């Protein structure tokens, strides 16, 4: 029982240490991406791949508001045939960057998730994104790794236990999706986003 209690105590302590100013920067970047009708690409491996898929789902579904243009969100983790094709023919480190080269449009956003911050395929995606002017965000744990250093916005979870890092990443993604949905709804209510209505243009 003590170990179960300590797990949640450590989770609570980690949440209290979250850099809220940086979290707000990520929220602002998502809102700006929505305003310019950009696509938000999300990627990660293992548990972070599950978080990436979940985040893309919530960005696309949770943010739906009547009469508002929908959020463009895509997880680069979800096309298994394509991922295995690139892995088999060229290398696992290229599975995300090769997809981005086909799908990326100027102004799009890349959210990369890596507990260690050192996943080569995630690093390549962010490095490539930086070279083409994408907005890049890195969600990390442990010491942040290379991802924290190269992402334009690095959001670091101060924890070295992977399950808890992944838990916090999931919580962050839920909070960001809910926040974006609230921003869309509030903006429609005050009539400041008429150009974001279905069929509108920026």
In short:
The protein has helices at 2-16, 20-35, 47-61, 80-89, 97-103, 120-132, 145-150, 162-189; strands at 39-43, 72-75, 109-114, 135-140, 153-156. It has 202 residues and is of the alpha/beta class.
Main features:
single chain; alpha/beta; five-stranded parallel sheet; 5 strands; globular; disordered C terminus
Any overview of this molecule?
- This protein is an alpha/beta fold and 202 residues long.
- The protein is built from 8 helices and 5 strands; from the N terminus they run ααβαβααβαβαβα.
- 54% of the residues lie in helices and 12% in strands.
- A 5-stranded parallel sheet has the order 2-1-3-4-5, sandwiched between helices.
- It has a single domain (20-186), classed as Glucose-6-phosphate isomerase like protein, domain 1 (Rossmann fold, 3-Layer(aba) Sandwich).
- Keywords: Isomerase.
